């Protein structure tokens, strides 16, 4: 068997965040869904053992996002996506990642509006 590609994900993580450029958005937190897909180095993927020390813990992903959205106000979803990518790539085992954000309550006739970014080492 070849070495498997190891993909982790966090799906539809809902946060409430002060984000937006319009006057009516500033100071009015909005619901945002965040999705993260990460490819990690197979050497630290759990194939070496069934121990948390051998994987990228989901708590790092979720807690890191919480830390970002609680630490500042964002004008743009693009900036939020870029900051999440930078946080993920602070870990050397992250080889590639895709991050998307979706504001849920912008238009009554749209489910959401958003941004998606990806990066690779």
Automatic annotation (TrEMBL):
The keyword Lyase applies. The keyword Lipoprotein does not apply. It is an enzyme of class 4 (lyase). One of its GO terms (molecular function) is dihydroneopterin aldolase activity. Its EC number is 4.1.2.25. Keywords: Lyase. It holds the Pfam family FolB. Residues 8-119 form the Dihydroneopterin aldolase/epimerase domain. InterPro entries: FolB_dom (IPR006157), GTP-CH-I_C/QueF (IPR043133). SMART domains: FolB. Signal peptide: none annotated. SUPFAM superfamilies: Tetrahydrobiopterin biosynthesis enzymes-like. It comes from the Bacteria. This is Dihydroneopterin aldolase. It comes from Rhodobium gokarnense.
């Amino acid at each position: 068997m070849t070495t498997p590609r190891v993909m982790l994900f966090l799906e539809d993580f809902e946060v409430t965040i002060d984000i937006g450029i319009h006057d009516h958005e500033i100071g009015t937190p909005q619901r945002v869904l965040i999705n993260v897909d990460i490819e990690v180095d197979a050497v630290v993927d759990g194939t070496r053992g069934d121990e948390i020390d051998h994987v990228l813990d989901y708590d790092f992903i979720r807690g890191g996002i919480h830390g970002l959205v609680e630490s500042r106000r964002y004008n743009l979803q693009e900036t939020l996506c870029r900051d999440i990518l930078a946080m993920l790539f602070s870990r050397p085992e992250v080889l590639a990642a895709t991050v998307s954000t979706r504001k849920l309550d912008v238009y009554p006739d749209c489910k959401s509006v958003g941004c998606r970014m990806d990066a690779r080492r």
